[in-house]
Specification:
- With 725 residues, this protein is an alpha/beta fold.
- The chain folds into four domains: 3-135, 3-Layer(aba) Sandwich (Rossmann fold); 151-282, 2-Layer Sandwich (Beta-Lactamase); 295-453, 2-Layer Sandwich (Alpha-Beta Plaits), CATH 3.30.70; 487-499 and 535-716, Alpha-Beta Barrel (TIM Barrel), CATH 3.20.20.450.
- The chain is 47% helix and 22% strand.
- The chain has 26 helices and 26 strands.
- It has an eight-stranded mixed β-barrel, surrounded by five helices. Strands 2-1-3-4-5 form a five-stranded parallel sheet, with helices on both faces. The protein has a five-stranded antiparallel sheet with strand order 7-6-10-9-8, with helices on both faces.
- Helix 3 links the parallel strand 3 and strand 4 (87-91).
- Helix 2 runs parallel beside helix 3 and helix 14 crosses helix 15 (455-477).
- The chain is rod-shaped.
- It starts with 11 loop residues before the first strand and ends in a 10-residue tail after the last helix.
- Bound molecules: ligand C2E and magnesium ion (2 copies).
- Ligand C2E is lined by residues 485, 500-502, 513-515, 518, 531, 534, 558-560, 590, 592, 620-621, 644, 677-680, 697-699, 704.
């Protein structure tokens, strides 16, 4: 049977028939035909046998005792173990209904009795062939199914791991790339493309899609990193670069990568990730920016200025004729604006000023804010030093335009100190210091000035600062002494008064006269303290002289605006007089014309207040300052002191003489006494006597002297100055 088509050697056939003769006949014939033949005589037995022996085909009689062939077939088909076995019915019934019943019961074929053996053999062979084919097909299917299953499992596992990786990558927000070096093919993950603004379908798997988008400043670095790693010189690739997004702006990325190598250690594949670090970069950038810029105006701050300045100084050292200039600017009266309108307005003003300053210079020049109302401009690479003054006046002009803030119209001027490298500089600090020094000088020169630094100024400034410190110290340590200069009555020739004149016993420079320190004391607001100290000591000394018998002796004390504007001045003076048991009339306060005019209304008020207390007041240096004639009638005056400039010209300048005569006349008409100061010679004295000047003071009568000298002087004959009369 092995040679026939489709059947396999020793196919097993189960023949079921209740008729023994048929069974025997078929058994013999099929056995001869090479089959293994099983037989059974009823349906029940056949069912068990089929399940047990698994025949390849069943030949089933229809009409049997017990269950018939149809029922047997039905049960075979219901049984899992037997349902695939083909069943051929044998029956004498030839009608169509039984055929149908057979097929419905699950049979594959039908042969009529009496059996034509050749026919049945052919049919059996056909069905066996079909069955075997089916079986092998099933086997193949099974294998295929198994293979498919296995593959599915692998794919699932793979997918799972890929998904896991993709998920991780997506979680880390990284894009992935995988570059096959052998085929020069590169895979970009959807996220990688998405980071650059492209969809999954866009961008070719070509390396150029990546490299050509890298910022030109960063490309070299990336290529180097890749080369080094491929050459095995680095453990991995790690590099930050800017890459062009579809929206045409650059994004910062961190790229990491690792090569895969063959057995000979040659890299054939290289893969990695790309992380968007733009946020981190811009945070870093902001930090860096904030560290180097002023928050209010956004201008570079001191740190950035100094860094830039150092570079400029270096360039100046290396380049012949390289010129730069530093402007140190300080707004005039900014404090006043801040105090009057409040800090928000002050801040806005600074912001406006910063814009205007930037408008006045080239983009390559740096405008910086040092803090408060201090700005610095660094003019770099100037072709002609004369431009500097031009820039300065441009700034003043631009700032002079009124600034509208909060319904206020503000006017700003600025004091500018300028340092240029015409004097070579080594250090940034020195440039700033010199510009600052010049600014300080500009401030002193008045509003809206600019001054170019020269080294003498610097020395002055250093000295000045030192001197101020010493002066403060002097007030604290009471390093002052009062000198006294006699004033005599020309008619009676008696000393009627002494003028208290301050001296400073300077620790290094010896005795200093007031012109060397009072101006500074006024500027740094120490003058009121000093004057009060003089007032106190000269009253104390007067009390002592009174006690010694000079009971009519008056004391003249010079007054500054600072003292005049002390709120409790009248009270303070009355206190001092009371403590020394002196009447108010002992004191004669001298106020120079210029002092009076510094704040006329307030001074008039203060002096009237003192006058009401019975204190005498004289105008000092009369005629030397701006005329105060208009105020004469408003003041409780007792005298006028003719300025020594006129007195010294007696006998030399007729006009001065005329002025003196007029002053004396004016004073007398106003019922004031007249004192001439600076009398140095007898000619002057004679002139004054002739024109009925009341009192005189000057070196001829007596120089300013110490307490001890004055005490001796008082005790001596008071007519010495008359010698030679
Ligand atoms: P002053 O009040 O006009 O004082 C007269 C100045 O002329 C004094 O200078 C005095 O030494 C000087 N003098 C007097 N006689 C002659 C003379 O014959 N020839 C010349 N060439 N000069 C003479 P001093 O002591 O240097 O004081 C200068 C100024 O300083 C004073 O001018 C006064 O305005 C001010 N001063 C002095 N002491 C004080 C003080 O305690 N407080 C205030 N606020 N100012 C004072
Ligand atoms: Mg005086
Ligand atoms: Mg005077």
């Amino acid at each position: 049977m092995s040679d026939n088509d489709g059947t396999k050697p020793q196919d097993t056939i189960l023949v079921v028939d209740d008729t023994s003769t048929n069974l025997t006949l078929l058994f013999n014939r099929f056995t001869q035909a090479g089959f293994k033949v099983l037989v059974s005589q009823d349906g029940e037995t056949a069912l068990r046998q089929a399940a047990y022996a698994q025949p390849d085909i069943i030949l089933l009689d229809v009409m049997m005792p017990g269950i018939d062939g149809f029922e047997t077939c039905r049960r075979l088909k219901e049984n899992e173990e037997t349902y695939t076995i083909p069943v051929i019915f044998m029956t004498a019934l030839a009608d169509i209904d039984s055929k149908m019943a057979g097929f419905e019961a699950g049979g594959v074929d039908y042969v009529a009795k009496p059996i034509d053996f050749q026919e049945i053999l052919a049919r059996i062979k056909t069905h066996l062939m079909i069955r075997n084919l089916q079986k092998s097909l099933e086997a193949q299917n099974l294998q295929l199914e198994q293979e498919i299953n296995e593959r599915k499992q692998i794919e699932a596992a793979l997918r799972q791991s890929e998904e896991r990786y993709a998920l991780a990558a997506r979680g880390a927000n990284d894009g992935l790339w995988d570059w096959d070096l052998r085929n020069d093919y590169i895979y970009f993950s959807p996220r990688w493309k998405n980071m650059l603004g492209y969809s999954e379908a866009e961008l070719q798997p070509k390396i150029s899609e990546w490299f050509e988008r890298i910022h030109s400043d960063d490309a070299e670095q990336l290529h180097q990193q890749i080369e080094l790693h491929l050459a095995g010189k680095t453990a991995n690739i790690q590099c930050e670069y800017r890459i062009l997004h579809k929206n045409q702006s650059y994004y910062w990325m961190l790229c990491r990568g690792l090569a895969v190598r063959d057995s000979e250690d040659n890299a054939y594949r290289i893969a990695g990730s790309q992380t968007d670090i733009s946020g981190q970069k811009s945070a870093e950038e902001k930090l860096r920016h904030d560290a180097l810029h002023d928050t209010l105006t956004g201008l570079p701050n001191r740190a950035m200025l100094m860094h830039h300045l150092e570079n400029v100084i270096q360039r100046a050292k290396e380049t012949p004729n390289y010129l730069f200039a530093m402007f140190f600017l300080d707004l005039d009266n900014f404090k006043l604006i801040n105090d009057t309108f409040g800090h928000p307005v002050g801040d806005e003003l600074l912001a406006t000023v910063s814009h205007r300053l930037q408008e006045c210079v080239r983009p390559s020049d740096m405008v910086a804010r040092l803090g408060g109302d201090e700005f610095v401009i660094l003019l770099d690479n100037i072709h002609d030093i004369s431009h500097v003054a031009g820039v300065s006046s441009r700034i003043q002009k631009r700032l002079a335009d009124p600034i509208e803030l909060n319904n206020h119209q503000l006017f700003v001027t600025v004091s500018i100190g300028i340092a240029t490298n015409q004097k070579p500089y080594q250090q940034a600090e020195d440039v700033l210091r010199d510009a600052d020094t010049a600014m300080y000088q500009a401030k002193a020169a008045g509003r809206g000035q600019h001054i170019v630094f020269d080294s003498a100024q610097h020395v002055n400034l250093v000295n000045r600062i030192r001197f101020e410190g010493q002066l403060r110290q002097a007030v604290e340590n009471e390093e002052f002494v009062v000198f006294y200069q006699p004033i005599i009555n020309l008619e009676t020739q008696e000393i009627i008064r002494v003028e208290a004149l301050i001296r400073w016993q300077h620790p290094e420079r010896g005795l200093l006269t007031p012109d060397t320190f009072l101006g500074i004391a006024e500027e740094i607001e120490l003058i009121a303290d000093i004057d009060q100290w003089v007032l106190k000591y000269s009253c104390l000394q007067s009390a002592l002289w009174h006690a010694q018998g000079y009971t009519q002796l008056q004391v003249a004390v010079n007054m500054s605006v600072g003292l005049l504007q002390q709120p409790q001045l009248r009270h303070t003076i009355i206190d001092i007089l009371d403590q020394n048991k002196l009447p108010a009339t002992v004191l004669n306060l001298e106020v120079s014309e210029n002092t009076l005019l510094k704040d006329v209304d307030a001074n008039l008020k203060s002096l009237n207040n003192l006058g009401e207390a019975g204190i005498h007041i004289s105008i000092d240096d009369f005629g030397a300052g701006y005329s105060s004639l208009v105020h004469l009638k408003k003041l409780p005056l007792s005298g006028l002191k003719i300025d020594q400039l006129f007195v010294q010209n007696i006998g030399e300048n007729e006009k001065d003489e005329a002025i003196i005569i007029s002053i004396i006349d004016l004073a007398h008409r106003l019922k004031l006494t007249v004192i001439a100061e600076g009398v140095e010679n007898k000619g002057q004295l004679a002139f004054l006597r002739k024109h009925k000047c009341n009192y005189v003071q000057g070196y001829l009568i007596g120089k300013p002297m110490s307490t001890e000298e004055m005490t001796v002087y008082l005790a001596q004959k008071p007519y010495r100055y008359m010698a030679g009369k």
